Structure to design on (681 residues):
């Protein structure tokens, strides 16, 4: 069987989506509504958005500079609250931890709230293979789970689906009326999951922040499924990247509005829950056990690079995906990565290998729109450029780019050579411009018939 | 070495940047629009924000008036069962009106683990703080009838006193830190449960309460 390389598959998927007018319309509409609301929310709330970004980047940098100490502090304080803290070097260890916990409690059913860290480790597949049913409870996640897809976007997983498609899906899987509107569909999801929350043995969540000083897990959401996941089942399992640390509770006064504004264009999400351990002596209900799995999975490698460590500031707001002209055109599934869009193209080659994933660095026009919107000021487009450089230096970029760049460098060193290169180009144009693969889809620009010097001279004369 | 030590060792082995500036944080608060003023202004701000988010805001001069408000808003919820947390403030309101007290179950806090909350249409809890700038309600489980009472019933009613209104999230968090150090679960509720996962169309009542009302006493 012929399997495409990641690069080949990416090109194919990207090309297909780029020419899909329905996809274009759905995404353009969703992102336009986000952008309008974002501007309003930001202006209504912040007097100084730039300073807020500086502060957030500064706090995250401080965390990263002292990450081992903060993690130990978090572990100490979470343990004091009765939580168990486990560490996972990679996806496999993390999966094994979750499976062990589920087995230990004889779990048959796990209910989950949205979490990209669990997507990163392919947790659902693993649990299901072990006979543990997993139900996604976030509406967007439920939609992609029922459709057998991966999340399209890190904040709005079902962004690519129209309401008619979702109605058809819910009709087939949940027996909902075919002509149900979004209200009806949402209520169907609510009914579908109500029982699950109370019957599930294990609740699995991610974390948006880990507070070192409080030993607390912070989770934001709008639907309430996260709160139910943390409140109803006997066991609460958290899977969180080690970079999620914030020093203390008071930092939330900045990070909650920042994440809500950039993520969903809200001043605050409906719920921001702060959990410290399982049910405490003064509490009326809540899980008997809480286990927090701290996931490395390549993050320490990013931290060790002076240039790339800033990518660990990321709070997974998804703003850079929305801003990216490439993401908007090719869509989230083309990437085949847990994290699509600019941030995904920056970190995936480092987390999963430059050899297979270097092509992602080319999935950018280097326009810098991602960098402009990032609430923690990650220099995304510079890092994409750095990935291109790293791929070439490491000999992972194939022959074309190095050869093309050498030719370019050769030509740029001498005017005469540059003119000659242009002459070759014109010759090539005459012979076979129409044969370029790109010519089938768009107009190939023509090389100028005059050199810069000739144009300059002409301009001077006509003055 | 176990995985914990390996991860920590790897992190320790990475070169650290020479210095970082931690101290500034939010000290000057220059990044947000101001939200100051007397308590009446803050209350008005809170009410306006909550209403904007499609929550309901009611004011009552005293516990007696609060009982009337409660009777009215629980009445139009079509006879569903109603459960409340036996918090002193809630008790003092229920004591004002026999008919109200009859319609509301007030289980002993020690038994709150058992009720099947799916049976209830309304949950009534207290809160810790109301945040004027965002319209947020801050509560912790031990002071609000547990983790489930405020999220499982489709209608959540919050009773609070006027001195619980604070200007900003910053202030609320600072106070939480002073007071509820041992508490296990807290949540900041900003408007009724919602989702925009289908074509960005906002639908209320996704998994949490569809209706959220605050009754402010005083
Ligand atoms: S890189 Fe920045 S903009 Fe992109 S998801 Fe992370 S925090 Fe948001």
């Amino acid at each position: 069987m012929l399997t495409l390389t990641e690069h080949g598959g990416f090109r194919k998927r990207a090309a297909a989506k780029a020419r899909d007018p329905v996809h274009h319309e759905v995404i353009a509409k969703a992102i336009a509504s986000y952008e309008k609301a974002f501007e309003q929310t930001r202006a209504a709330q912040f007097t100084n958005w730039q300073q807020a970004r500086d502060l957030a980047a500064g706090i995250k940098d401080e965390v990263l500079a002292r990450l081992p100490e903060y993690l130990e502090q978090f572990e100490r304080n979470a343990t004091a609250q009765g939580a168990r803290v486990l560490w996972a070097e990679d996806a496999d260890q993390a999966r094994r931890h979750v499976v062990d916990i589920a087995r230990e409690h004889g779990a048959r059913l796990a209910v989950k709230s949205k979490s990209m860290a669990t997507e990163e480790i392919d947790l659902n597949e693993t649990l299901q293979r072990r006979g543990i049913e997993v139900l996604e409870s976030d509406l967007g996640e439920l939609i992609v789970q029922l459709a057998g897809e991966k999340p399209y976007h890190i904040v709005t997983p079902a962004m690519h689906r129209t309401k008619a498609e979702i109605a058809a899906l819910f009709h087939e899987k949940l027996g909902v009326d075919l002509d149900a509107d979004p209200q009806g569909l949402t209520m169907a999801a609510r009914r579908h999951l109500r029982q699950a929350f109370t019957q599930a043995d294990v609740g699995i969540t991610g974390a948006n922040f880990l507070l070192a000083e409080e030993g607390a897990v912070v989770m934001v959401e709008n639907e309430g499924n996260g709160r139910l996941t943390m409140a109803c089942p006997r066991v609460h399992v958290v899977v969180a990247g080690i970079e999620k640390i914030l020093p203390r509770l008071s930092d939330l006064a900045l990070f909650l509005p920042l994440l809500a504004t950039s993520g969903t264009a809200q001043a605050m999400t409906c719920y921001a829950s702060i959990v410290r351990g399982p049910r405490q002596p003064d509490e009326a209900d809540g899980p008997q056990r809480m286990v927090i799995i701290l996931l490395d999975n390549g993050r320490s490698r990013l931290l060790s690079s002076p240039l790339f460590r800033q990518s660990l500031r990321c709070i997974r707001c998804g703003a850079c995906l929305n801003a990216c002209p490439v993401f908007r055109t090719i869509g989230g599934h083309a990437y085949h990565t847990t994290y699509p869009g600019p941030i995904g193209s920056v970190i995936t080659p480092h987390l999963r290998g430059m050899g297979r994933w270097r092509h992602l660095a080319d999935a950018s026009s280097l326009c810098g729109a991602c960098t402009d919107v990032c609430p923690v000021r990650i220099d995304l487009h510079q890092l994409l450029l750095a990935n291109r450089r790293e791929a070439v230096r490491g000999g992972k970029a194939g022959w074309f780019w190095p050869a093309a760049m050498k030719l370019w460098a050769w030509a740029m060193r001498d005017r005469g050579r540059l003119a000659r290169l242009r002459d070759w180009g014109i010759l090539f144009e005459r012979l076979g411009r129409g044969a370029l693969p790109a010519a089938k889809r768009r107009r190939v620009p023509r090389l100028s018939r005059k050199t810069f010097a000739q144009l300059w001279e002409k301009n001077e004369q006509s003055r | 070495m176990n995985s914990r030590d390996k991860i920590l060792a790897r992190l320790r082995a990475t070169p650290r940047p020479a210095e970082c500036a931690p101290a500034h944080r939010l000290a000057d608060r220059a990044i947000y629009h101001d939200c100051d003023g007397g308590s009446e202004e803050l209350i008005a701000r809170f009410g306006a924000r909550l209403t904007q988010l499609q929550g309901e805001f009611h004011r009552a001069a005293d516990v007696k008036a609060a009982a009337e408000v409660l009777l009215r808003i629980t009445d139009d919820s079509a006879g569903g069962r109603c459960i409340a947390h036996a918090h002193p403030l809630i008790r003092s309101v229920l004591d004002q009106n026999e008919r109200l007290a009859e319609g509301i179950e007030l289980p002993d806090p020690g038994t709150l683990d058992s009720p099947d909350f799916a049976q209830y249409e309304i949950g009534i809890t207290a809160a810790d703080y109301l945040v004027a700038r965002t319209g947020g309600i801050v509560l912790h489980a031990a002071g609000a009838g547990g983790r489930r009472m405020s999220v499982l019933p489709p209608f959540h009613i919050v009773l609070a006193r006027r001195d619980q209104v604070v200007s900003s999230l910053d202030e609320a968090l600072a106070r939480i830190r002073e007071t509820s150090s041992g508490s296990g679960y807290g949540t900041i509720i900003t408007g009724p449960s919602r989702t925009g996962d289908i074509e960005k169309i906002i639908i209320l009542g996704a998994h949490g309460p569809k209706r959220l009302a605050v009754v402010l006493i005083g």
Observations:
- The first strand of chain A starts at residue 84 and ends at 88.
- The two ends of chain A are 67 Å apart (CA to CA).
- Chain A touches chain B through 98 residues (CB under 8 Å).
- The mean pLDDT of chain A is 93.
